[in-house]
Amino acid sequence: MAHPRGKAVLASASGEPSALALALLSLGQSVVGFDPLFVGEALDPVNPVSRRPETDHFTTYNPMPAADQMQDLATVLAWARSQPEVVEVSLIAQDLAGPQVLLARPALEGLARTVIELKHLPDAQDPSSFPAGLDLPGMFQFGGFKAAAALVAPAPLWILGASPSFDASWMKSAYESSGAGHVLRTAARDPRPEEIARWVDRGQ
Question: Does 142 fall in a domain?
């Protein structure tokens, strides 16, 4: 599960699993959370700086924090797939992790099913609305979110609560063209945790 709060979202302060984590566990799923760069335990407790120092032309010769966080996600998924008891790995992205995971998803291998929440999709016409986790130079020159969603086809994908700014036409065309329209789901409402868990577990 990917979330901007990292693995802290998997449980309450008293240690009780979140509703979604509990729904997954009740179906026999294992649940993995992680803290990408600048989140949770990935911060230095002595000096909890949540961004890199300001440096002239930094992005000219260094990866952006968004790219590093996406690499952290890819590393966690590769680790999960390598575990001997794991049959398949699925991915759930919530809150602001949703748009980030959507951009990364075409490059992520070996995933059974992917659930992506897009309620917090920033306005493409307003670059100032983009958090650091989505700041990728040239992203819209290559189609942005609509191109990323199309490139996920034909893998099973469920888009939750997409904001009005999300153009789903490319995604739908790509899935229909690849004969995979039946594994693409969209939901305007928030499904119950049990519904998400059941789809992740059985594809139903």
Answer: yes
Q: Cβ distance 192 to 24 under 8 Å? A: no
Q: How confident is the model at residue 51 (pLDDT cuts 50, 70, 90)?
A: low
- The whole-model pTM stands at 0.88
The pLDDT score that the predictor gives to residue 127 is: 65
How many folded domains does the chain comprise? 1
Give a yes or no: residue 71 inside a domain.
Answer: yes
Domain of 111, in residue numbers? 17-41+65-202
Average pLDDT, the chain: 88
Q: Nearest Cα to 152, choosing from 183, 195, 122, 124?
A: 183
Instruction: Please report, for the domain that includes residue 120, its CATH number.
Output: 3.40.50.1820
